[in-house]
């Protein structure tokens, strides 16, 4: 479904204000987070390395590509182009980020979150709760976007 950025549509109906607000917040979070990481890919690469989850050979590619995926997904969701796919991508990234955080904390690590580039703090329970809320918003929005397409 393709809605306009001004008049969001969910299942052919004008969107409730809560859906529009959630979409703008989710997209804004991803656009801002990606932009901050794009500005300093080396710092983001160090944050990725501190999680100790990826082979070092993959870290540079992830540090460069992932922030662009975040920005593009956020922009596409807001402008209404491939909105369902963009929301699914943001929810998928949130799932991966949440899993990486849980695994890292379970292993006794306390890396820099890396979420918002230089504005990021250490990974902790609060970070995971915020990521869980972002994931919930993504799943809810995806469901609203695709509710009339499933069947």
Defining traits:
151 residues; two-stranded antiparallel sheet; 3% strand; 2 strands
What this model shows, in words?
- α3 (59-79) packs across α4 (83-106).
- The relative contact order is 0.17.
- 67% of the residues lie in helices and 3% in strands.
- It is an all-alpha fold and 151 residues long.
- The model has no long low-confidence stretch (mean pLDDT 88).
- Strands 1-2 form a two-stranded antiparallel ribbon.
- It has one domain (16-145).
- The chain starts with 8 loop residues before the first strand and ends in a 5-residue tail after the last helix.
Fraction of helical residues: 55-70%
**What summary fits the major beta sheet?**
2 strands, antiparallel
- The H-and-E topology, N to C, reads as EEHHHHH
- General shape: globular
Low-pLDDT stretches: none
Q: Determine the mean pLDDT.
A: 88
Number of structural domains: 1
Question: In brief, what are we looking at here?
Answer:
By secondary structure, the chain is mostly helical.
Write the topology of this structure.
Layout: E1 9-10, E2 13-14, H1 17-39, H2 41-51, H3 59-79, H4 83-106, H5 125-146
Antiparallel strand pairs: 1-2
Helix pairs in contact: 1-3, 1-5, 2-3, 3-4, 4-5
């Amino acid at each position: 479904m393709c809605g306009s950025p001004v008049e969001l549509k969910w299942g052919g109906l004008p969107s409730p204000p809560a859906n529009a607000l959630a979409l703008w917040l989710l997209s804004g979070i991803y656009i801002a987070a990606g932009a901050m990481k794009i500005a300093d890919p080396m710092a983001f690469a160090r944050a990725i390395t501190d999680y100790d989850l990826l082979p070092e050979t993959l870290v540079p590619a992830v540090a460069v590509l992932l922030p662009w995926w975040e920005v593009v997904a956020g922009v596409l969701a807001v402008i209404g182009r491939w909105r369902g796919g963009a929301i699914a991508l943001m929810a998928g990234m949130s799932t991966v980020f949440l899993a990486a955080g849980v695994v890292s904390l379970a292993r006794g690590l306390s890396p820099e979150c890396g979420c918002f580039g230089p504005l990021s703090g250490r990974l902790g329970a609060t970070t995971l709760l915020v990521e869980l809320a972002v994931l919930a918003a993504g799943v809810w929005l995806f469901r609203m976007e695709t509710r009339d397409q499933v069947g």
